[in-house]
Amino acid sequence: MIKEHFYFGSIVGVSLAVLGSVLALSGVFDWSLFWVGCAIGGLTCTTAIGSSPQRQLVLMPVIEQAPPINGTRI
Amino acid sequence: MQLDIVVAFFILGAVAKLVKSDLKLPTALYQGLTIFLLIAIGLKGGVALAEHASVSLVPQSLAVICLGLAIPLIAFPLLSRIGRFSREDAASIAAHYGSVSVGTYAVAIAVLEARGIHYEPYFPLFVVLLEMPAIALGIAMARRQGERIAWRKLLHEMFCNQGILLMSGSLVIGYLAADQTPTIMPLFGELFHGVLALFLLEMGIVAAGRVADIRLTAPFITAFGVIMPLLGGLLGGALGLQLGFSAGGAILLAVLGASASYIAVPAAMRTALPEANHGLAIAASLGITFPFNVMIGIPLYIALIDLVTPTL
Questions:
Q1: Chain A residues near any Cβ of chain B (below 8 Å)
Q2: For residues B166 and B164, what is the distance between their CA atoms, to the nearest angstrom?
Q3: Secondary structure of residue B190 in the 3-state scheme
Q4: Based on the number of CB atoms within 10 Å of its own CB, is A59 exposed (0-12), middle (13-18) or buried (19 or more)?
Q5: What is the pLDDT of residue B7?
Q6: What is the model's pTM?
Q7: What is the DSSP letter of B178?
Q8: pLDDT over threshold 80, residue B146
Q9: pLDDT of res. B44
Q10: Looking at the predicted complex, does its ipTM rise above 0.90?
């Protein structure tokens, strides 16, 4: 995941969550904008974790130890 | 959250796609519904234009064109610098967001009428005007110095595509034959909401299917697809209030600023920028921005403009 995508997604997610909660608490609008912000923040974080080098390091030994399929290693 | 009845059909379509239902509208019916909506909106605007035509429309139209140019200028640096998209991809997506979605406009009209909010009835004129500037600017942003453009083919796509041709044609017909329109209005007036519900059912199916296309750049495109309509809506709403529109008119201009094209611009961009990734632009405008505007954006713009001008 590109670093800029992570920052942009995080900033937009947090900003919308804050704006959404301010609007909801002041009775101007419902909580939907807050949930959209949370969803964007959550999506950004899960994508970042899924594509992090640490996660790939954890998975690599598992893949290397996998039994060969039809004589071919993965 | 008060859910509009036509918007509920959009959600039904999206749910049908997500649960892998075999629900499918025939392509010809979808095309027929699109043609119906374009003619209905154009005719209504033409009749209103005949009643309200005045010199004040000229500065308003110029300001609306400037809005259509400002939005791609905001979107392009976001896409190219932060999104790291190629020049062509960034310009293509920016052009989609600078142009307007007739479907979103139709939903906004339905919501305003359901809530009894008055708006300037000649707004279809602005819908037509907002379709084109973003296309021209998008092409200019994508081209490097010395590159040649097939202007003849491009101008044909810009002015003769189905959306522009039908809406501007119906606008002119409505304007010239305003006194005869009651004879065809039972079809184009009274059936409008029912046809819009069917159109949104299909759009829900299509939008849910497009979400998968943005998997690789999901966090950025999702954030962009939500923040751009909010910025465009803010600009449009502020401009509408500055131009002296009624609260309903300011809401409609906010919706026009917030919406992203998925009919006229893709056709023009395919001709002008064949190297751009058009699937990405359509997925963002149809899979993210359209559902956001229909379900959250329109009620939000109404609430915010109500906050500024409590006359609704």
A1: 1-2, 4-9, 12-13, 16, 23, 28-30, 32-33, 36, 39-40, 43-44, 47-48
A2: 6
A3: coil
A4: exposed
A5: 82
A6: 0.83
A7: G
A8: no
A9: 86
A10: no
